[in-house]
């Protein structure tokens, strides 16, 4: 690898660390811990002993609790970066961590929570979003001893889980904020691309039915392809790469980055969305909802008209659609909380029980 590329990677790492430091300086120290469910029964019927859920907390446990749910393959550090936490968790901001106790669990299959790469590989029980939500609920109730949440808010996969939270535990929270998500089952290009992600890895001979000696090469290329195709924003990419040379530069930078994912974990977590469908039980949701989506979301294209009819089934729901621009990032727009922080703050202020 050339000195130029190494230098570029080093600069990117320093910038990331600087962003995290800037964000964390604005709110109390983030704490990490594990909670273990001694027994856990998956929807598949499989039973698992000592299921580990790793989680992060910010603030005082005596304050109203906010449950924040991450996206697929999304490291928690992205929720602690300047563009997100730096816009939401600081003094006077929408999720001021002096006023709220913020809980960020790593879902089954993610981060330091139980996952196939811990040792079981493809013998690990197949899980779905409902399993993830059940585990989160048990963490809140059994692990943290909390009986109520001020807010459940999530991005992408976490947004879909937010819909499920409202249906499974309707009296558990004051408010719901699903972001970059919809309640309908995965379909169209969204599911087709996920299916191709999984197939790309499984069809790589190096995968060897999950018994690989090193990460299959298809893991990197499939992940980069999916990311470019379904996140980033059409206008934003054209602005960043108006020539082939600049587009190649963006691709080369991604290809030069090290692989940090595990192939079996990757297959499991993308496959976990297969049976998601919150549509049939929308009438169970009673908490007020602020649904935040972006007009350039590649995975949830606004032109499909999904949500137009569904939102009428909800008792108290409002859709906030962020207009597309060269500054938005398609499906990834929610990591730039500046686009909706004021709306979120106003929404929470309108919900009874808000601590002024």
Automatic annotation (TrEMBL):
One of its GO terms (biological process) is methionine biosynthetic process. The keyword Transit peptide does not apply. Pfam families: Abhydrolase_1 (PF00561). The active site is at residues 156, 297, 331. The keyword Transferase applies. Residues 1-23 form the signal peptide. Keywords: Signal, Transferase. InterPro entries: AB_hydrolase_1 (IPR000073), AB_hydrolase_fold (IPR029058), HAT_MetX-like (IPR008220). This is AB hydrolase-1 domain-containing protein.
